[in-house]
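TL;DR need structure tokens for one chain.
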Amino acid sequence: MPPDIAALLAGSPVLFAGCVFVLSLLIGSFLNVVIYRVPVMLEREWRTQAAAITTGEPAVPSTEKFNLMVPGSTCPACKAPIRAWQNVPVVSWLLLRGRCAACKAKISARYPVVEFVTAALSAWVAFHFGYGVNAACALLVTWALIALTGIDIDHQLLPDNITLPLMWTGLLAAVIWGGSPDRALPVAPSTAIVGAAAGYLSLWLVFHLFRLVTGKEGMGYGDFKLFAALGAWLGWKALPLIILLSAATGAVVGIALILLKGRDRAQPMPFGPYLAAAGWLAMMYGDALIGGYLRLSGLQH
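>> reply
TL;DR here they are.
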């Protein structure tokens, strides 16, 4: 980026946040694709592998290309191609009144919601951290957490091809940029390494203790990896706050669903969205939240 533009963005947090908001509308549109297509890609891969195991023949991938880029976006109902002007984040959905231009089938409001939430949270991150490495790291984490939240809500799945790269980029960023006293993200390398290990092993231990006591599995391995990724980015000191916030929020939401909607107590509930939300809050306001708790409890004056 030219130095004069970088200086302008660095000197104006509002302008920087506005630019990030516009860019993140496009990112949100891409995250909608990720949320929908990654589980389908994984299911196709698993089916191919399962067929190979069943038949004893080498796995033969499908000749039909299906990835994050191919095929182009189409209407789920009539399969009509979605033109470029129909794919402008938020605006196109409003202009089309939430319906397909070809067949008038209803288009879920979830698409513009994901786009707007991505843009709003990203602008919040940009304004909070200001122009620089802090914001770049926080934006990457934010986008990954949004994608993981959407996928876990839909499929109770936290894909390795998102959680593991998120963890490794956190460790790599800590090695390259971590440890600077004037930088909140990434954390120092030793803090990141211990955070990743502690994040994974702590939930792994809880999982096995719960299974030993109840004979049931209380969470999935994807939760361990997401917690490890948050530990890599935020350090081990943030882990108690994250698990406390996520457990408390999950308990409140679970009880509310049981009381208000009659949800079956035995029905599994994805934990990833609560970990993601708690991790994002810890990334943004971890020190303030911990300080406020200590003051309320009388441990800090």
